[in-house]
Amino acid sequence: MILTVTPNPSLDRTYEIPALDRGAVLRATADRVDPGGKGVNVSRALAAAGHRTLAVLPLGGPAGAALAALLNGEGIEVVGVPVAGQTRSNISVAEPDGTLTKINATGPELSADESEALLATVGERSAGAGWIACCGSLPRGLAPEWYAELVARAHAAGARIALDTSGPSLTAALRERPDVVKPNAEELAQAVGRPLATVGEAVKAAEELRARGARAVLASLGADGQLLVDEDGTHFGSAPVAAVRSNVGAGDASLAGFLAAGGTGRAALAAAVAHGAAAVQLPGSQLPTPRDLVPAAVMTTDDVPYDRLLREPVS
């Protein structure tokens, strides 16, 4: 069983439109409402692949109730921590060329008691979990050190932690040595405070995160593939993508595939790449099922293309 923690979940509505024209009345060609939040998406991807998962998240108001109902409908066990504020609702606008415009709400402010209740609930429900995946931004009311406290408590209980966050929250948590961190290229550049223009520069940034405490780094480089930097060295993986429809949840799907495949080594990296490549070809925040995956198309190697220029360099 893989337990996920999403401190700031959401309801995500996605509209597909022919083109985004500011100031005009736009008619959507399709729309959908999905559960949102990075940890939520990890649970959804795991459930879609037939793995047992439990989602711990703060829930408040009608939006929180709707979110729990949607997750239950996908076969996900939800452990909700009641909060006084309203669970947020986000909007995404997707264009045919893959351009995605997102409007993310702030979300509720959690009290000190609600913060502690969330930490305690994770501890109570983590028995038997193979991994605890802690994902996403922190809501108002939670200090940047909140994830660090969660990692410390989880390790004290013997659990393995995968952390997908950024900024001060990531920096603070590194000192507690999370078992794997999963930044994208932009988050990786932010963490080390310098631009990344090549795969080699991304590798050096990942190695720096390991030196600062991360036991392994799974880095998504967008269209350029993914890196896994751990105690055994550096591994690179990629897969062809016919057309990008939406990148919402693609990184979360990658983390789900990685953890479901054991969370270590080239086989887990290959699963991460397969899940990420499948996710970007699906609409909205839809997560891939096993029939969407093409494992044979995935390439992994220890011969890392250090000099390759990133198609989307981060400044």
TrEMBL record:
Transmembrane intervals: none
InterPro entries in UniProt: 1-PFruKinase, PfkB_dom, Ribokinase-like, Tagatose/fructose_Pkinase
Gene Ontology MF term list: 1-phosphofructokinase activity
Domain (Carbohydrate kinase PfkB) ranges: 23-290
Pfam family for this entry, one: PfkB
Broad EC category: transferase
UniProt keywords, alphabetically: ATP-binding, Kinase, Nucleotide-binding, Transferase
E.C. designation(s): 2.7.1.56
PANTHER family registered for this protein in UniProt: 1-PHOSPHOFRUCTOKINASE (PTHR46566:SF5), 1-PHOSPHOFRUCTOKINASE-RELATED (PTHR46566)
Family per similarity comment: Belongs to the carbohydrate kinase PfkB family.
Protein name per Swiss-Prot or TrEMBL: 1-phosphofructokinase
Species whose genome carries this gene: Streptomyces siderophoricus
Recorded name of the encoding gene: pfkB
